[in-house]
Protein backbone atom coordinates (compact mmCIF):
# COMPACT_ATOMS: atom_id res chain seq x y z
CA UNK A 1 0.00 0.00 0.00
CA UNK A 2 1.29 3.45 -0.87
CA UNK A 3 1.06 6.51 1.34
CA UNK A 4 -1.66 7.89 -0.93
CA UNK A 5 -3.69 4.69 -0.54
CA UNK A 6 -3.63 5.17 3.22
CA UNK A 7 -4.40 8.89 3.33
CA UNK A 8 -6.90 9.28 0.50
CA UNK A 9 -10.59 8.81 1.19
CA UNK A 10 -11.90 5.44 0.18
CA UNK A 11 -14.38 5.59 -2.70
CA UNK A 12 -17.71 4.33 -1.46
CA UNK A 13 -19.92 1.80 -3.13
CA UNK A 14 -23.45 2.99 -3.80
CA UNK A 15 -25.23 3.48 -0.50
CA UNK A 16 -22.04 3.61 1.58
CA UNK A 17 -20.54 6.72 3.15
CA UNK A 18 -17.16 8.08 2.08
CA UNK A 19 -14.48 8.91 4.63
CA UNK A 20 -13.50 12.54 4.90
CA UNK A 21 -9.76 13.13 4.69
CA UNK A 22 -8.21 14.53 7.91
CA UNK A 23 -7.45 17.76 6.04
CA UNK A 24 -11.18 18.14 5.39
CA UNK A 25 -11.93 17.85 9.10
CA UNK A 26 -9.11 20.29 9.91
CA UNK A 27 -10.41 22.79 7.33
CA UNK A 28 -13.91 22.49 8.78
CA UNK A 29 -12.60 23.01 12.34
CA UNK A 30 -10.57 26.06 11.28
CA UNK A 31 -13.65 27.49 9.56
CA UNK A 32 -15.68 27.04 12.74
CA UNK A 33 -12.93 28.78 14.73
CA UNK A 34 -12.95 31.60 12.17
CA UNK A 35 -16.73 31.94 12.53
CA UNK A 36 -16.40 32.24 16.31
CA UNK A 37 -13.66 34.89 16.25
CA UNK A 38 -15.31 36.84 13.42
CA UNK A 39 -18.67 36.70 15.21
CA UNK A 40 -17.00 38.19 18.29
CA UNK A 41 -15.41 40.96 16.21
CA UNK A 42 -18.73 41.62 14.45
CA UNK A 43 -20.48 41.87 17.82
CA UNK A 44 -17.81 44.29 19.02
CA UNK A 45 -18.19 46.37 15.87
CA UNK A 46 -21.92 46.82 16.36
CA UNK A 47 -21.63 47.49 20.12
CA UNK A 48 -19.00 50.22 19.71
CA UNK A 49 -16.24 47.92 21.00
CA UNK A 50 -17.26 48.50 24.61
CA UNK A 51 -16.22 45.03 25.76
CA UNK A 52 -13.29 44.43 23.42
CA UNK A 53 -10.86 42.17 25.30
CA UNK A 54 -7.65 43.75 24.05
CA UNK A 55 -5.32 46.62 24.81
CA UNK A 56 -6.46 50.07 23.78
CA UNK A 57 -3.08 51.81 23.77
CA UNK A 58 0.33 51.18 22.28
CA UNK A 59 1.17 49.10 19.23
CA UNK A 60 -1.36 46.43 20.17
CA UNK A 61 -4.54 48.48 20.05
CA UNK A 62 -7.65 46.61 18.99
CA UNK A 63 -9.90 49.62 19.48
CA UNK A 64 -7.80 51.74 17.13
CA UNK A 65 -7.89 49.04 14.45
CA UNK A 66 -11.56 48.08 14.77
CA UNK A 67 -12.78 51.67 14.83
CA UNK A 68 -10.48 53.08 12.12
CA UNK A 69 -11.76 54.27 8.77
CA UNK A 70 -10.29 51.06 7.37
CA UNK A 71 -12.64 48.89 9.46
CA UNK A 72 -15.29 49.24 6.75
CA UNK A 73 -15.13 48.67 3.02
CA UNK A 74 -17.92 50.26 0.99
CA UNK A 75 -19.92 50.61 4.20
CA UNK A 76 -19.60 46.94 5.11
CA UNK A 77 -17.75 46.21 8.35
CA UNK A 78 -14.64 44.12 7.69
CA UNK A 79 -15.60 41.93 10.65
CA UNK A 80 -18.96 41.16 9.03
CA UNK A 81 -17.23 40.34 5.74
CA UNK A 82 -14.94 37.99 7.67
CA UNK A 83 -17.93 36.33 9.31
CA UNK A 84 -19.56 35.83 5.89
CA UNK A 85 -16.27 34.42 4.53
CA UNK A 86 -15.90 31.89 7.34
CA UNK A 87 -19.57 30.86 7.17
CA UNK A 88 -19.14 30.20 3.44
CA UNK A 89 -15.89 28.31 4.04
CA UNK A 90 -17.57 26.29 6.80
CA UNK A 91 -20.22 25.18 4.29
CA UNK A 92 -17.61 24.47 1.60
CA UNK A 93 -15.45 22.49 4.03
CA UNK A 94 -18.30 20.60 5.70
CA UNK A 95 -17.63 16.85 5.72
CA UNK A 96 -20.45 15.95 3.36
CA UNK A 97 -20.81 13.81 0.27
CA UNK A 98 -20.69 16.88 -1.97
CA UNK A 99 -17.42 18.19 -0.50
CA UNK A 100 -15.48 16.75 -3.44
CA UNK A 101 -17.64 18.76 -5.83
CA UNK A 102 -16.74 22.05 -4.14
CA UNK A 103 -12.96 21.73 -4.56
CA UNK A 104 -12.57 24.57 -7.07
CA UNK A 105 -14.86 27.06 -5.32
CA UNK A 106 -13.29 26.17 -1.95
CA UNK A 107 -9.83 26.90 -3.35
CA UNK A 108 -10.96 30.16 -4.97
CA UNK A 109 -12.65 31.21 -1.73
CA UNK A 110 -9.65 30.56 0.48
CA UNK A 111 -7.32 32.31 -1.99
CA UNK A 112 -9.60 35.36 -1.98
CA UNK A 113 -9.72 35.30 1.82
CA UNK A 114 -5.94 35.08 2.01
CA UNK A 115 -5.54 38.01 -0.39
CA UNK A 116 -7.89 40.04 1.82
CA UNK A 117 -5.88 39.08 4.91
CA UNK A 118 -2.65 40.23 3.28
CA UNK A 119 -4.31 43.58 2.50
CA UNK A 120 -5.60 43.90 6.08
CA UNK A 121 -2.18 43.14 7.52
CA UNK A 122 -0.74 45.90 5.34
CA UNK A 123 -3.47 48.27 6.57
CA UNK A 124 -2.78 47.43 10.22
CA UNK A 125 1.00 47.78 9.95
CA UNK A 126 1.34 50.78 7.63
CA UNK A 127 -1.90 52.76 7.60
CA UNK A 128 -3.38 52.35 11.09
CA UNK A 129 -0.06 51.82 12.89
CA UNK A 130 -1.62 49.35 15.31
CA UNK A 131 -2.23 45.62 15.57
CA UNK A 132 -5.41 43.97 16.77
CA UNK A 133 -4.79 40.59 18.41
CA UNK A 134 -8.28 39.34 17.53
CA UNK A 135 -7.72 40.37 13.91
CA UNK A 136 -4.37 38.61 14.00
CA UNK A 137 -6.17 35.46 15.15
CA UNK A 138 -8.44 35.75 12.10
CA UNK A 139 -5.41 36.27 9.86
CA UNK A 140 -3.65 33.21 11.31
CA UNK A 141 -6.78 31.06 10.95
CA UNK A 142 -7.13 32.15 7.32
CA UNK A 143 -3.49 31.31 6.48
CA UNK A 144 -3.82 27.95 8.26
CA UNK A 145 -7.06 27.35 6.34
CA UNK A 146 -5.22 28.05 3.08
CA UNK A 147 -2.56 25.49 3.97
CA UNK A 148 -5.16 22.95 5.01
CA UNK A 149 -7.26 23.41 1.87
CA UNK A 150 -4.13 23.03 -0.28
CA UNK A 151 -3.24 19.85 1.64
CA UNK A 152 -6.79 18.56 1.10
CA UNK A 153 -6.64 19.45 -2.61
CA UNK A 154 -3.34 17.62 -3.05
CA UNK A 155 -4.41 14.55 -1.08
CA UNK A 156 -7.56 14.08 -3.15
CA UNK A 157 -6.16 15.10 -6.53
CA UNK A 158 -6.00 11.53 -7.88
CA UNK A 159 -9.29 10.51 -6.26
CA UNK A 160 -11.59 11.17 -9.24
CA UNK A 161 -9.64 8.70 -11.42
CA UNK A 162 -9.63 6.11 -8.64
CA UNK A 163 -13.31 6.70 -8.00
CA UNK A 164 -14.19 6.27 -11.71
CA UNK A 165 -12.11 3.09 -11.95
CA UNK A 166 -13.75 1.77 -8.80
CA UNK A 167 -17.21 2.47 -10.23
CA UNK A 168 -16.34 0.74 -13.54
CA UNK A 169 -15.14 -2.36 -11.70
CA UNK A 170 -18.40 -2.42 -9.75
CA UNK A 171 -20.38 -2.28 -12.96
CA UNK A 172 -18.29 -4.96 -14.69
CA UNK A 173 -17.96 -7.32 -11.74
CA UNK A 174 -21.34 -6.70 -10.17
CA UNK A 175 -20.05 -5.43 -6.85
CA UNK A 176 -17.43 -3.39 -5.02
CA UNK A 177 -13.91 -3.51 -6.49
Structure description:
This protein has 177 residues and is mainly α. It has a single domain (23-173), classed as de novo design (two linked rop proteins) (Up-down Bundle). The protein has seven helices and two strands. It has helices spanning 3-7, 22-46, 62-66, 78-93, 103-128, 133-155, 159-173; strands at residues 72-73, 76-77. A two-stranded antiparallel ribbon has the order 1-2. α2 (22-46) runs antiparallel to α4 and α4 runs antiparallel to α5. The radius of gyration is 20 Å and the shape is elongated. It starts with a helix and ends with a helix. 28% of the residues are buried.
Write the layout of secondary structure elements.
Blueprint: H1 3-7, H2 22-46, H3 62-66, E1 72-73, E2 76-77, H4 78-93, H5 103-128, H6 133-155, H7 159-173
Antiparallel strand pairs: 1-2
Which tags fit this structure?
de novo design (two linked rop proteins); mainly alpha; disordered C terminus; 177 residues
The biggest beta sheet reads:
2 strands, antiparallel
Number of strands: 2
The fold-level CATH name is: de novo design (two linked rop proteins)
Strand order of the largest sheet: 1-2
CATH superfamily: VKOR domain
SS-based class: mainly alpha
CATH architecture: Up-down Bundle
Morphology: elongated
Q: What is the CATH C-level name?
A: Mainly Alpha
The N- to C-terminal Cα distance equals 16 Å
The amount of helix comes to 55-70%
Q: Residue-averaged pLDDT, rounded?
A: 82
Strand % is under 5%
Task: Indicate how many domains the architecture comprises.
Answer: 1
Number of helices: 7
Rg, alpha carbons: 20 Å
Q: List low-confidence stretches.
A: 1-13, 164-175
Order of helices and strands: HHHEEHHHH
Amino acid sequence: MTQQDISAPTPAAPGRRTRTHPAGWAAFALSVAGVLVSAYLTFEHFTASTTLACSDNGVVNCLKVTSSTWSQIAGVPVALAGLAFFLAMMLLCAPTRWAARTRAIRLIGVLAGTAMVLWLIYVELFLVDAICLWCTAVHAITVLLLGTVLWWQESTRALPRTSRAHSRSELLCGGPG
